[in-house]
Amino acid sequence: MGIERLFTRLQAAGFIQNDRKLGEPDCRTHHHAVIDGPAFAYFVNGRLKLKKAAEPGIGSVVAYTEYAAESLRWLQLFENDGLDIHAIYFDGALPVTKRPVRIKRLQQHAEQLHAYKLRHDHLSRKVGAPDLVTCHAALPEPSFIVPAVREALSNSAYHDRIFVVPGEADNFCVAAAGQLSEANKNELISIFTNDSDLAVFESGPSTRIVMLSSMETTGTVLTASSCWPSRIAKSIRSENLFALAYHMQLDPYVSVARVQARLEHGDQPTDRGFSDFVAQYSSAIEQVALGLLQTDPRKRRALLELDARLAEFVCQVRDLAIRADTPYVLRSAETAIGVDVYLPFLIDDPSKASAWHIGARLREAAYTTILSYHGSPPTMVYEYKRAGNNVTARKIVTKEHADLPDQLAALLTSLSHTIEADTLATNVDRWRYAIVQTLLWDFMDTGTTLPTAEDLAHVLLGRRNLHWEHVRLSAQYQACFYSLRMLRQSLRYVACGSDGAFDLPADERHSARALEKLLNGLPGIAEFLVPSDIDMKVWLDLLRTCIAEISGIDDTTAALQVPARKKRKMKSKNVPSVSDGQAVVSGNSASEKNRARAGGVMSSRNIFAALGT
Length: 613
Fold this sequence. Notes:
The chain has helices at residues 6-12, 37-52, 64-80, 99-123, 129-137, 145-154, 169-183, 229-235, 242-250, 256-264, 272-280, 284-295, 297-304, 308-322, 360-373, 404-419, 427-445, 453-460, 468-497, 506-519, 525-529, 536-551, 555-558, 592-597, 607-611; strands spanning 17-21, 31-36, 84-90, 162-164, 188-193, 207-211, 216-218, 221-227, 338-342, 380-387, 390-397. The chain is an alpha/beta fold and 613 residues long. The chain folds into two domains: 6-280, 5'-nuclease (Rossmann fold, 3-Layer(aba) Sandwich); 338-611, no CATH class. The strands form two sheets. Strands 1, 2, 3, 4, 5, 6, 7 and 8 form an eight-stranded mixed β-sheet that branches. A three-stranded mixed β-sheet has the order 9-10-11. Strand 9 (338-342), helix 15 and strand 10 (380-387) form a beta-alpha-beta unit. The longest helix is centred in the C-terminal third of the chain and has 30 residues, at 468-497. The radius of gyration is 26 Å and the shape is globular. The two termini are 42 Å apart.
């Protein structure tokens, strides 16, 4: 899909209502809002960026906690304006036809990041707020906006109206509008989105499409640009907009009036291309799937806690399990079967390798857990991520499921030492420390230069990144956290899908249940990534001890040394090197007191040795 300049041409024809008042206070029961969740999250991001674009530093200037608060503020504005928030839908699967679009978008982000770095480095030698505003506007969006907003809304008063769907959110918005229109013929429905293509769907006679990007507030009144598809169809004397939209897709510059004249003279499309086009704008499948989510709480709950990237993986694996008698997706005659994962785009140093080399084995354990639950054989997983200014797929051959119990049990042991210790007062700070330990083990295991305690404290305290070294370390820290989040979500998915019974092979059940219980304490995105309020000196003492214990060398020289362990040879060009997975031998210089303060680092095993290779 994607009809170029559709909204612009409808506007030129007079079919768009500009800056119109959206609701009427005290009429909430008669006007329902159906919201495209990802579009809403990016709308909120745009508003926050406008307020803070002139602030100094590299990367995003908006904290994830602000996205949560701003999202709730806007929903309250909707309700104050007389709109009933019927449902908010978030993506949970990517159609095969959209995968090239996803890769293209990742490529664009990589190019934007490269251009941003060049411009920022140039502007860093000058002072000027207008230049900073322009520079920040060119930066790719922060990595976790959509899951952070979904998570915040799922923990709010709107929790029962949040859906993660097995498809694209905007198509499910149409399905929901059609459902509402059928049940409430005299009530208004507004779909809030930024996808003008939704005007082509048959969404009911009382449905309008509201463009989030045009929304403004005047006092307590909301205004926006919108259109009523059924009214447009009536104006051109047609039952729907399929023929009009088809001609407009074929010619991106033809006007509505010109197409209308053709149709009135009998130029109705009847070719195979038109049939395929119409099929793209049917929401019949989404209506069936939505009905299942609405009537089966277990199905809804199983998807609800998944971020889009992992939900996409689950849907692919589940579909393949349903078609068990057919081959998996074939790549070529030489390659095995596989599924795709499009990792979130991290704000990283574009001159370096992607920060997603961190946490690779945690993600592999997440994939294997889901494959085991669905009874799928070991499978190729293709992780798409930035590589320089390009996008490449890293090929992962998932392990035999027989290895999974030992992996999960070892991970449980390693994390428990820190999370159950009383080294730090709050749960979130204990998890921050556990992530740092995991990050350092990953550095050691791959022969990466260790950061200093000062650099790690800079990230933990959430200070503005003024140097690209801090940007990179922050991205690696986020990659480690998010990889563990993916493992947590995979275990939650299994638990929800089997009513807590962990429908896994018997030998996997105990370790999976225990680890899932521990990981339930992992904070959400906004809570975890908000700056720590612990004193810098406290963090420095802990981090110096941690670095010394893990590396076996003093923190003052840690940044100057690279572990002497040899990396395992790469199996193929697309597979990055990883270590042999054996435990790093720690030094014995730290005192018992420092060991205790480090949260049991000495007694815990190398997390990546535990996960194996």
